[in-house]
Design a protein that fits this description.
- By secondary structure, this protein is mainly alpha-helical.
- It has one domain.
- The chain has four helices and no strands.
- The chain has helices spanning about 1-10, 15-35, 45-160, 160-175.
- Helix 3 runs antiparallel to helix 4.
- It starts with a helix and ends with a helix.
């Protein structure tokens, strides 16, 4: 109960209580600043706390510098990547342009070859048609000549009138030469 009495006596003297609190605080601060316990290897609590805070501050500073270097490096990498992407995009456009040009060139060559082949086939067909026409005309002339000769022979055999028959043969031969 002794504590209760002390507290009761101090409560009546409120300013004295505040003074006691301030004195206690000064003693604690003095202990922190001056006391050198063995577990701190002869350093004061304040000094140890300061060293710890300084070390932590140094660690944070190093980490911040590393973070800044990382940001700068990331920015460089981003710029490099953007340049690489742009270069790749340009190369892709060049490839597409060359492929388009090559495709057009090949298409033109194919068209030229197809036209040449068409002309060759048409020419060959015309030659074959002309050859067949000439062969047909030749056959028709031979057949017409054979018919005329047969007719002349029959006429000569039936009528042995030389002047009339000769004129008939000559007219037939003349008409055959004219292509009628």
């Amino acid at each position: 109960m002794h504590i209760d009495t002390v507290l009761t006596s101090l409560s009546g003297t409120y300013p004295l209580w505040w003074i006691a609190q301030i004195v206690a605080l000064v003693v604690v601060v003095a202990l922190i600043l001056r006391w050198r316990p063995k577990f701190l290897k002869g350093n004061t609590i304040g000094g140890s706390l300061g060293k710890t805070l300084d070390a932590r501050e140094a660690e944070i500073r190093v980490q911040l510098e590393a973070a800044q270097r990382s940001r700068e490096e990331a920015a460089k990498i981003r710029e490099q990547s953007a340049a690489d992407v742009e270069r790749a995009r340009q190369e892709a456009n060049d490839i597409v342009a060359r492929a388009t040009q090559t495709s057009q060139t090949i298409q033109h060559e194919i068209e030229v070859r197809a036209h040449d082949e068409y002309q060759r086939i048409v020419g060959q067909a015309r030659n074959e048609i002309e050859y067949e026409r000439q062969q047909a005309e030749s056959r028709l002339r031979r057949e017409a000549a054979d018919i005329v000769i047969d007719a002349a022979r029959q006429v000569i055999d039936r009528h042995l009138q030389e002047t009339t028959d000769r004129r008939l043969i000559e007219d037939s031969l003349a008409s055959m030469k004219d292509g009628r």
